[in-house]
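DATA CLASS: polypeptide
GOAL: derive structure tokens

***
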Amino acid sequence: MWLTFFFVLTAVTACASLAISVFAARRAGLALASPPQRLRSVESRLQSCEQLVEEHTQAMTDMANRLKMIKVRSATSHAAKDDNSLPDPYRDPDGWRRAMNSRIALNKLNGG
């Protein structure tokens, strides 16, 4: 009786040891595979951040160029304005209408 008990106990211990060693081997394999995956993940995040910085830099450059062109156009439009020019039809529609009516009336009087 004691002999069969020790045989069974030995068999159970051997099975448990086998299961634990398989579990430990799998865990060690995952631990060895994990650093390269983490490294690739960090590299991809870094590349994503670099790409985002480049896109934002380009957007800021474009906006700065647009602002510069707006200033240039504003300066040239103020310099080109003379007293005989028409008012802006969008900002001053009534003034533009009056100016056009007076221009049409002058053309009719002058035979144009």
Q: What stands out?
A: Helices lie at 2-80, 93-109. The radius of gyration is 42 Å.
